[in-house]
Amino acid sequence: MPRMTTMEAAVAVMAQEGVDVVFGIPGAAILPLYKALSQNPAIKSITVRHEEGATHSADGWARATGNVGVAIGTSGPAGTNMVTGLYTAWADSIPMITITGQAPRAQLHREGFQAVDICSIVKPVVKRSFLVMEPAQVPWVFREAFRIAREGRPGPVHIDLPLDVQQAMIDYNPETDHRLPVFPMPPYRPAIEKALDMLLQAKRPIILAGGGVINANASDVLRELAEYLQVPVSPTLMGWGTIPADHPLYVGTVGIQTQTRAANQIFLESDFVLAVGARFAERHTGNLEVYTKGRKFVHIDVEATQIGRIFQPDLGIVSDARLALEALLETAKSRVARQQPREWVERVGLLKEAKDRRMDMDTVPIKPARVFKALNTVFGTDAIFTTAIGLYQIWSGQFQHVYKPRHYLVCGQAGPLGWEIPAAIGVKCARPEEEVVAVVGDYSFEFLMEEIAVAVQYHIPMVIVMLNNGYLGLIRQPSKYQYDMNFGVDISYGMNEDRGMDNVLAVEAMGGLGKKVMNPQDLESAMRWAQEASQTHQLPVLVEVFIEREADAAMGPSLDQIREFDEVIDRDIALASERQ
Asked: Which residue range or ranges hold the Thiamine pyrophosphate enzyme TPP-binding domain (predicted)?
């Protein structure tokens, strides 16, 4: 049996599990792992500037690949800095492993330097946390961590490694070890039959496609089912890309913030919802009474405790999303012929046309919608976008077009500011041939802007498009309308065209490139310049767009309010019909 250090065994396991890059910061309590990494060319190590940045980069890598991302830090504050990233991955069902060093076992109860019970700290936001006390357990703990991260509802796992455990020698043969199997949950066939009965009986059904469809790599089956039965599809924000934005069955996103007016109206007119891999988050549902009244629900989710958590569906099915959709498609093909578009599908098309929002404004200062028109125009269907939380994310959800799964990546549930740039770094490391664009706000940019130095150091090209309004915009809007104040939300101070920090200068100081845009006629040319410059110089490139400072995003109890506009909607549809 070969003899090696525990960390050499751990690195061998990671390589076998499909990890080709890790993100982290070396420190005294984790150096044995870094020594093992230095000896294994199969895994590239990216040194970040903050441990939270490491977790977000590993998160982006995992979202882009569907594999388990890995972030590494030393003991003490390195682990506590990772908590936000773990929470983000846990909330969005992203498979990830964080690894921290720890004081030697004999010091754990003596308040040793940087010795903190990180396993207890992260426990609420991970699927499992391990403190490895026996060297011989190391390879098997790593194997189990990867299995747990992948199985069922994906999520993060944490491994804490005392220094003396890392330095120990063990007997281990990678050639006789293998990845632990993951068994996707199959659906109960009678439940599938019942779900299909309900769908076929409905007059105005829709399919609600959540992030679980993407996690299960089931977008192709979902589209085939929708096309076979001619059922419109509304993806949640986490499910963007499950169906292309230009598909005739594409509805748009329902919600109170990231939504389209047509999608909300279509949802209210529906009488049946087949929800697959969706969790009915608050920003999606809004008022539950309005959301559920008048329609039946079938909820398919891989985690049993998600069913009934927000409201009780008419039918719950515990299953892997792909296996459930395959079963539905197989059953449908055995029972009915391929369907032709019905009146409901035609109405969906009319509603989308009638309620489409204008994006071609050429006024100065620049309207936010105009920025997303430029994004939709310049970047092709293969571009991968990352975005975080703020008014810019809400505008993105209302105006941006996405065509493929794993091409629109957003920290949906936790919403940490600063996520988009380190996530984009992880995405680019995972998909080096793809174009990667981070859409950011000026305030979120400042949270983890130091990670731009990582992209410069490792020659990671990407485009950053910033919407700068000099405000904590998402807080300014409710502060103004709900509390009648404008307190603590203005971050402008007369340096960058009265918008605060000179963001282009900051990027250039770290070795990147940047350009400011103040006129809408310059948007497309600036974005094309950034495309070319990022590839030519293999650098991150910022396009900073100065938008209208007081611009608001359309949000609120949209499903409640939309009934007030029925007459206007019907008039618009009638006009659209006449134009046809």
From this structure: 389-545
| DSSP state, residue 105 | G
| Structural contact between residues 32 and 57, judged by C-beta atoms closer than 8 angstroms | no
Tell me if 523 is assigned to some domain: yes
Q: Is residue 563 part of a domain?
A: no
Alpha carbons within 13 A on the beta-carbon side of 179: 17
Identify whether residues 480 and 533 lie together within a single domain: yes
pLDDT of residue 556: 60
Type of residue at 287: N
What CATH number is attached to the domain comprising 308? 3.40.50.1220
3-state secondary structure of 13: helix
CATH number, domain of 414, equals: 3.40.50.970
At position 78, the amino acid (one-letter code) is A
* Residue 565: per-residue pLDDT: 43
Closest CA to 279 of 311, 231, 251: 311
Examine the domain organization and report whether 131 and 238 are in the same domain: no
Query: In what helix (H) or strand (E) does residue 322 lie, and over which residues does it extend?
Result: helix 321-335
- Domain range for 214: 189-354
Beta strands in 350-406 (DSSP E): 384-387
Characterize the bridge pairing of strands 96-102 and 272-276: unpaired
Strand order in the sheet with 128-131: 44-47, 21-24, 69-73, 96-102, 156-162, 128-131
| Residue 547 near residue 523, CB atoms below 8 Å | no
Q: Give the number of other Cβ atoms within 10 Å of residue 44's Cβ.
A: 14
Same domain, 120 and 93: yes
Q: Are residues 284 and 416 in the same domain?
A: no
Tokens of 283: 């920003």
Helix (H) or strand (E) segment spanning residue 576: helix 566-579
Lookup result for tokens 């800095």 = 81
Contact 465, 438 (CB under 8 A): yes
How many Å is the maximal CA-CA distance in the chain? 81
Residues 404 and 494 reside in one and the same domain: yes
- What is the C-alpha radius of gyration for the chain, rounded to an integer number of angstroms? 25
Q: Could you tell me if 346 and 403 lie in one domain?
A: no
List the beta strands (DSSP E) in 398-553: 408-410, 436-441, 462-468, 513-517, 540-546
Mean pLDDT by 10 residues, the chain (580 residues): 95 97 97 97 97 98 97 96 97 97 89 86 97 97 98 97 97 94 95 97 96 96 97 95 94 86 90 96 86 95 95 96 98 96 91 82 92 94 93 89 95 90 98 96 94 98 95 83 85 83 95 97 97 97 94 66 46 48
Residues 6+ apart with CB under 8 A from 104: 112, 162, 163, 164
Residue 213 lies in a domain: yes
- Give one DSSP letter per residue of 245-257, joined into a string: TTSTTB----SSS
| Domain match, 196 and 323 both | yes
Tell me if 197 sits within 8 A of 272, measured CB to CB.
no
Query: Rounded to an integer, what distance in angstroms lies between the CA atom of residue 460 and that of residue 476?
Result: 34
Q: Does 553 reside within a domain?
A: no
Residues 150 and 237 in one domain: no
> CA 522, CA 447: separation in Å to the nearest integer?
28
Domain tally, the chain: 3
